Amino acid sequence: MKRRILLCVIALLSLTSAAWAADVDGKWLAKVAGTMGQEDSEITLTFKAKGSKVTGTLNNTAMPGDVEIQEGKLEGNNISFSLSRNFGQSDMKVVWKGTVAGDEIKFTRGIEGGMGGPGGGMGGGMGGPGGGAPAAPEIIAKRVK
């Protein structure tokens, strides 16, 4: 009997956790200030969530073209995903992490491994004051209605 109750509780928790997940489906738009003389860029994110899995695309005017997001996850109001980008002669994994609050998502992004890179706020260099990596600037995406 205890086992049956435990299984029911686990089933209910798994169903309600999906209901507590933030609504991210649709199109989101963010503007990112250019760095090192680059123009500002506009980032369009399109998401589709199914349970805790998130799929979609990202298009950045600084590097035009839709890029499929990978490893998309939605846990409560936290969203994360990665994508592959080619900078110079290297393929790099860019990791995005954000917090959803209604019609706004506050993101940070960085290149896996922590190395700063080119383009609109991903670290922008190989070290900040005191020799450490600069803090990743926050990127705010707003839902397109």
Question: Care to describe what's here?
Answer:
It contains one helix and nine strands, in the order αβββββββββ. The chain is mainly beta and 145 residues long. It has an eight-stranded antiparallel beta barrel with strand order 1-2-3-5-6-7-8-9.
Short description:
The chain is mostly beta strands and 145 residues long. It has one helix at residues 2-20; strands spanning 26-32, 41-50, 53-60, 63-68, 70-75, 78-87, 90-101, 104-111, 139-143. β5 and β6 (78-87) form a beta hairpin.
Which terms would index this structure?
145 residues, 8-stranded antiparallel barrel, 50% strand, elongated
| Content of β-strand | over 45%
Mean pLDDT level:
80
How big is the Rg? 18 Å
Biggest sheet features: 8 strands, antiparallel, barrel
Number of strands: 9
Secondary structure elements and their pairing?
Blueprint: H1 2-20, E1 26-32, E2 41-50, E3 53-60, E4 63-68, E5 70-75, E6 78-87, E7 90-101, E8 104-111, E9 139-143
Antiparallel strand pairs: 1-2, 1-9, 2-3, 3-4, 3-5, 5-6, 6-7, 7-8, 8-9
